């Protein structure tokens, strides 16, 4: 995890020294990772995923995190990574990944797309085992008040509807959760770990990792299929410590809504459906 911390050190410096404007570099990183069953078990314990012989999608998502940070903290990347917000994620699994598998990753960043209030782009991770594609992970980030050159026309915004119905559970998010999830995921973004820095970014205190909440929603879905598509739309942050209600609808796929108890405002919507 030390290298990830070093990358975040560069990210913090990037918020002080404004990157030079320019196009988003089009390059691809290739990495090979051997799945460590102990690391998966630790991740599953924190996120309350079942421990079995297959690697869950939320853990596979973490494999591309470090390399994606390398791309987005490069000197010629035109946006400070800590100023980008993860707004949507689509994970497509083509085949199950067994424990101990050697996974080859190809990580790249898309061309930017223009939005009225800024720009968005995708971090794309392709995963393969023995030359066979096993997953594709697309993380969409939004950069507010940032206009990038050579931006494509905006695609229609994706929206996931909240499921209807009463809450089936209330989740508790303790104060030390950010550090616990950082240790098993490698995501040491300081807004999840340090309240003073979180306040500097406009939050009253630290916030839960969006992908931690998404992982719990995935666990709530009870996915057993070999191939599926998992969409996540992120909304309001969850402040630590905090609580959230959970609503589930299994009418068309499995839709999980994580909402604010006092008014039902969405924190996150997750949808898992057959590929």
TrEMBL record:
Which Gene3D superfamilies does the protein's record reference? Answer: Hotdog Thioesterase
Q: Which GO terms describe its cellular component?
A: fatty acid synthase complex
Alphabetical GO biological process terms: fatty acid biosynthetic process
* Top-level division of the source organism's lineage: Bacteria
Gene Ontology MF terms:
fatty acid synthase activity
Q: Which residues form the MaoC-like domain?
A: 179-252
- Xref: PANTHER family: (3R)-HYDROXYACYL-ACP DEHYDRATASE SUBUNIT HADB, 3-HYDROXYACYL-THIOESTER DEHYDRATASE HTDX-RELATED
Q: Which family does it belong to?
A: Belongs to the enoyl-CoA hydratase/isomerase family.
- Protein name, per record: MaoC-like protein
Q: Which organism is it from?
A: Brevibacterium mcbrellneri ATCC 49030
């Amino acid at each position: 995890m030390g290298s990830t911390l070093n990358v975040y050190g560069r990210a913090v410096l990037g918020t002080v020294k404004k990157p030079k404007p320019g196009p988003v570099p089009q390059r691809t990183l290739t990495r090979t990772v051997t799945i460590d069953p102990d690391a998966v078990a630790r991740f599953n314990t924190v996120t309350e995923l079942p421990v079995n012989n297959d690697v869950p999608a939320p853990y596979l998502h973490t494999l591309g995190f470090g390399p994606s940070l390398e791309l987005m903290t490069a000197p010629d990347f035109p946006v400070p990574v800590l100023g980008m917000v993860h707004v949507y994620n689509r994970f497509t699994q083509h085949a199950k990944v067994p424990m101990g598998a050697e996974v080859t990753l190809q990580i790249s960043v898309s061309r930017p797309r223009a939005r009225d209030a800024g720009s968005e782009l995708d971090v794309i991770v392709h995963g393969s085992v023995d030359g066979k594609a096993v997953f594709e992970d697309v993380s969409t980030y939004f950069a507010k008040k940032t206009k990038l050159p050579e931006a494509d026309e905006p695609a229609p915004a994706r929206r996931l509807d909240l499921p209807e119905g009463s809450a089936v559970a209330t989740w508790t998010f303790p104060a030390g959760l950010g550090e616990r999830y950082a240790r098993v995921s490698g995501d040491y973004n300081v807004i999840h770990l340090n309240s003073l820095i979180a306040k500097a970014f406009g939050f009253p205190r630290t916030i839960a990792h969006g992908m931690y909440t998404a992982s719990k929603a995935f666990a709530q879905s009870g996915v057993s299929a070999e191939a599926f598509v998992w969409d996540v739309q992120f909304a309001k942050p969850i402040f630590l410590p905090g609580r959230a209600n959970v609503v589930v609808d299994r009418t068309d796929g499995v839709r999980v809504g994580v909402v604010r108890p006092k008014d039902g405002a969405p924190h996150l919507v997750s949808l898992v459906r057959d590929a």
